[in-house]
Amino acid sequence: MTSKKISGNELRDRILTRVRAEQSEPNEEARIEALAVQGNRDLLAIIATKRPASINDLSALAGRLQPNVSRSLAALVRAGLVIVAHEGRASVPQLSEVGLRKVRDLGISERPTATEESPAAQQPELLSLTLPMEPISRVASDAVEGDIAVTLLKRGGWTPITATTHADLNEVCVRLLANWWRLLCRRDDPFRLFPIGTTTRVESWEAALSVRSTGDRIEIIARPIVEDATLAAEELAVFVPQKLFASTVSDQLIRPVARWLRTGGRFDRPVQWMLNRMEDSMQYSDERRFCETAGALGKSPYDLDDTVAEKVRKLITSIPDDAARLDFASAIIPENLDQTLRSIDEEVETKARTNKLHRLTELRQRCAALPLRPTKPYRIGVVLAQSVRQIIGLDDASAVGGTEGLLSVLGGEPDFSSADQLGWDQLRGFLARGDQTPVVILHSEGSRSTARAAGDYLAFGNREAPIADIYTDRQAVGRAFAAELLAPARGVIRMVDEGGLMTSSVAAHYGVANDVIHWQYNNNVQRHALA
Hints:
There is one protein chain. The protein has 531 residues and is of the alpha+beta class. The protein folds into 3 domains: 22-113, Arc Repressor Mutant, subunit A (Orthogonal Bundle), CATH 1.10.10; 122-271, no CATH class; 325-486, no CATH class. It is built from 23 helices and 12 strands. The chain has helices at residues 8-22, 28-35, 38-50, 55-62, 66-78, 97-105, 118-122, 169-178, 180-185, 242-263, 270-283, 285-296, 306-318, 322-330, 337-350, 360-367, 377-392, 402-410, 447-460, 473-486, 489-498, 503-510, 514-530, and strands spanning 82-87, 90-95, 127-130, 145-154, 160-168, 191-199, 204-213, 217-224, 236-241, 427-433, 438-442, 465-468. The strands form 3 sheets. It has a 6-stranded antiparallel beta barrel with strand order 4-5-6-7-8-9. A 3-stranded antiparallel β-sheet has the order 11-10-12, with helices on both faces. It has a two-stranded antiparallel sheet with strand order 1-2. Mean pLDDT is 84; it is low at 18-23, 109-123 and 229-233.
């Protein structure tokens, strides 16, 4: 018996042809058919009224096994009644516009749509405190014994959980103010606040409360202080806008403590003058920029010697954009600042001709019309990458062609080269501009780093910007852009699920590392399978 072999290209063509043939616009007949099943109607009602945060949550609320729920959900998606949004690692079922209308027709009262910052927006109150009885006479010390309550969420959940601690509130406030700019601006570098306790329906446990800046957002995290690994699932966290975090901590914690001390006759205490100093710095843009930059380097701006202060000012001049500069400062060891800037300057001068990406400016102009409304950072990167692939005429099954192909797409020079000998801490590369054309300086060669630099420029257009191995909102844009440009999620999923190819084969086809394929598959499989 002879067997017929087909090439990888033929296999992909067959897959794409079949999938496209199966795709059709949902019609009223499909919706009637989907809603004729009681289980489908039940799921629609749960999505409308309970707003599950994931398909797992939907399964739990429905009391059904996930495979059964997934089949019913797929029918609702095909009928155009439900969409599945990608929220971090979770696939979140949501009503479509048609689904909203059908919910009203069925007499189900839907829940309002959440905002992008939905976890923070849904909380009744982020932070509250209980002070001792208001002093009526002079107090003997600066100690202010009281309670702090912080409202958090179990990861992937929507039900607020309150964690509390009893502490010397004055000591807490002084430590916060001493590290104010570091905890707000040193990105992807957790800062531990204080121990905190919480009680769930199952048990009570102690946790460590930390904050981590990702850029315009602050993540507040409570991690259990236990050896039992099963409790890791109980980690509580919430993202809040940086401005909301700063104002809440200032208005709901620091100011009340400073006021309590003044009422007790204790004036000019550290918490009071440190608060005044911080507020004065925030009033003047130049001084605030200096404080933020020092904080991103892990330094207090108020006790720098002249040498370090001059380094901070030099960094502000070298990278004028605030967001790019703070990512850069957060990615390096402060003591290496001079050496790193000097190395980058030398590399930019050496490679100003060879490492230009001539087509980036044109691509940015063509992408400028995209409706990139405020959304999650990774979505900006994905949308930009999909637009670029469309501009250059690549479908989801086609590979860019490794570093050589990517350079061709971006208008790179044939003698483009990296700077392997440089040690740049957590910097993977740097985007600069010799004249008006972007120049990319890489610590190590590879299409992923080049694509990340391109994504950063398309999204932000800054003259200087770092490509760094830290997890911030800005770096998320570049990472998502690179992954989607080099290995589109839809193409990856079709090759694995419908083509039966191993992830290593898919990685070889797209010319990327295997971890990119795993990332694209694991983070998108449910969304694309149900879409």
